[in-house]
Amino acid sequence: MHKRTFHLRDIILLALIAIIFGVIYYAAAFVYNGLTVLLTPVGYGPIANDLTMGIWCMAGPLAGFLLRIPGSSFLGEFLGAAVEMFLGDQWGASNLISGAVQGIGTELGFTLTLYKVYNWLTVILTSVTTTIITFAWDWFRNGYSHFAPSMLVIMLVARFLSMLVFSGILVKLIVNLLTRAHVIRS
């Protein structure tokens, strides 16, 4: 069995994904800030992070689905976070840590299929693994352990739905459109 490695075309595609999503991630911070302002007076400001997390995790699954090379999902996510950082977003260099954590989460979903399944099952798996890994990270980084159990359940469900919609369903629809347009091979 031939093991696929990165070629120049793959590196260029990874760079394009990172640039496009780095800009999207930068813009998503404004959505996050707006949601935080809107939800804080009613006691749900922290949920803004969970509602927008799926947006910040789109580059990894897209790179994984398009390149189908072990490590591509991690690199897509990490490089997208690096571009966001270089654009001067509000989190600075901590984006690199977040990008690495998010990349590990998405990569794990592809790993569970041994990089052989690229369908809706993979969408569900990457959504679940990224939700779990990023939620665990926020448990420590953002002090989620201090929230009431009912708030944690709401946050976890909000994060999973955000992952499923943005980094799952939307990414898969983008891949399907690119395939139908013969931009990529199925």
TrEMBL record:
Keywords: Membrane, Transmembrane, Transmembrane helix. It comes from the Bacteria. The chain crosses the membrane at residues 12-31, 51-69, 117-140, 152-175. InterPro entries: ABC_thiamin-permease_prd (IPR017195). This is Uncharacterized protein. It comes from Limosilactobacillus oris DSM 4864.
